[in-house]
Amino acid sequence: MATEEQKAMQVENFLNRAYKLDRRIKRPSKGEYYSLTRAEQDGNAQKELDILKNRIEQAIDIFFKQRLNHKTEEHLRILLSHNASAKNSNDINNVVEKGLLLTEPFK
User: Fold this and answer.
1) For residue 18, what are the domain limits?
2) According to the model, what pLDDT value does residue 1 have?
3) How many domains does the chain have?
4) Is residue 1 a part of any domain in this protein?
5) Angle of the 46-64 helix axis to the 4-21 helix axis, nearest 10
6) What is the per-residue pLDDT for 66?
7) Consecutive sets of 10 residues in the chain, 107 residues long: mean pLDDT of each?
8) Do residues 54 and 15 make contact, with C-beta atoms less than 8 angstroms apart?
9) Contact yes or no for 53/96 (Cβ under 8 A)
């Protein structure tokens, strides 16, 4: 089981891959994931969840602009739908783990 630090690093790494391709987006930070987990503990995480989901969606859109094979594009579309239906930090973490595997070539 990954620790909160590892999960935050995974989110930052995924977003960093997109940031390296398009520096017009906001620079990623582990704090984005920590803000979500703190908000979940306080009981009102919807705002933070929406922010992180939008950031992940933005990153996926950047990957779509790259040269990808058909299979990778299809997996990114599925990842986009999983991101849209994410309800908590665990769902976000699952999306990011899959995203890291898919975007390995952009490391």
Assistant:
1) 8-106
2) 59
3) 1
4) no
5) 40
6) 94
7) 90 97 94 96 94 97 94 96 97 97 93
8) no
9) no
In three-state secondary structure terms, 96 is helix
> Residue 49: CB partners within 8 Å, gap ≥ 6?
36, 39, 86, 87, 88, 89, 92
Residue 12 belongs to a domain: yes
**Cα–Cα distance for residue pair 79/101, rounded to 1 Å:** 11
The rounded Cα 91 to chain-centroid distance in angstroms is 10
Token reading at 26: 């906001």
Whether 82 and 94 have beta carbons less than 8 Å apart is answered as: yes
Residue 3, domain member (yes or no): no
Tell me whether residue 99 is in a domain: yes
Are the C-beta atoms of 19 and 27 separated by less than 8 Å? Answer: yes
The number of angstroms, rounded, from the C-alpha of 67 to the middle of its chain's C-alpha atoms is: 20
Which residues does 70 contact at the CB level (< 8 Å), separation at least 6?
none
Which residue, chain included where needed, has tokens 């960093």? Answer: 16
